[in-house]
Amino acid sequence: MAWIPIHDQPYDPVPYRPTRVSADESLRAAAELRAKMDQRRTVRAFSTDPVPEQVVIDAIAVAATAPSGAHQQPWTFVLVTDPEVRANIRAAAEQEEQISYAGRLGEEWLSALRPLGTDHSKPHLTDAPFLIVVFEQRYYLDNEGEQHKHYYVDESVGIAVGMLLTALHLAGLAALTHTPSPMKFLSEVLNRPRNEKAFAVIPVGYPSPEATVPALVRKELDQVLVRV
Ligand code: IYR
User: Fold this and answer.
1) All domains of the chain, ordered by start, with CATH?
2) From the alpha carbon of 118, which atom of ligand 1 is closest?
3) Which atom of ligand 1 is nearest to the CA of 93?
4) pLDDT tier at 7 (50, 70, 90 boundaries)?
5) Ligand 1 proximity of 180 Cβ (cutoff 6 Å)
6) For the chain, what is the HEC assignment?
7) 51 CA from centroid of ligand 1 (Å)
8) For residue range 17-39, what is the model confidence (pLDDT) as tens digits?
9) What's the pTM?
């Protein structure tokens, strides 16, 4: 069935009868997923080796199944492979980050970043074979140029990006959630319409064989899980 804007759709529910998974199968699947996801790391050093494009397309398709406020699906994923466009994005991002790391972030923020070892240099923007630039649609712009309000946009797009990172990891690819600040230049470089605002830039590829990651430790489950 073809997509039509949700505000033009009636309430017309259909049956939902997924096959019930046995408790044993659920336990096995959850434990396996937990172990696999515990291996995910944010990577900043990418190999330039090519990646099958369909893997990235499928991961974006997974992200696009995310739940969203009023089912408005307020996201656009721009898949950038053109080396010239990537070079432009890198140049603009590094220019902004240079200012940020030179002091715009402030001492508290800079010291919070120190354990991550980040700086203004962003080689991943040109090394990784794919960049996914995620835009949030602040509102829906219909063909007449009329604006329709979108709800819970940040939450919806955040969930979609989480699902994207999960899908990429489970397919064997590495990614980085990069949020250059300010991100306005992305709308200009990628020629996006006025209802869209950049949310994150996600380089995707294989880690460089020399990649290192900070020796970070995740919180224990009992620090993040509260039972009532
Ligand atoms: N946007 C900068 C700074 C930065 C901010 C946070 I919060 C991070 O977790 C990591 C980096 C950069 O990309 O370097």
Assistant:
1) 52-216 (3.40.109.10)
2) 14
3) 13
4) confident
5) yes
6) CCCCCHHHCCCCCCCCCCCCCCHHHHHHHHHHHHHHHCCCCECCCECCCCCCHHHHHHHHHHHCCCCCHHHCCCEEEEEECCHHHHHHHHHHHHHHHHHHHHHHCCHHHHHHHHHHCCCCCCCHHHHCCEEEEEEEECEEECCCCCEEECCCHHHHHHHHHHHHHHHHHHCCCEECCECCCCCHHHHHHCCCCCCEEEEEEEEEECECCCCCCCCCCCCCHHHHCCCC
7) 25
8) 999 999 999 999 999 999 999 99
9) 0.96
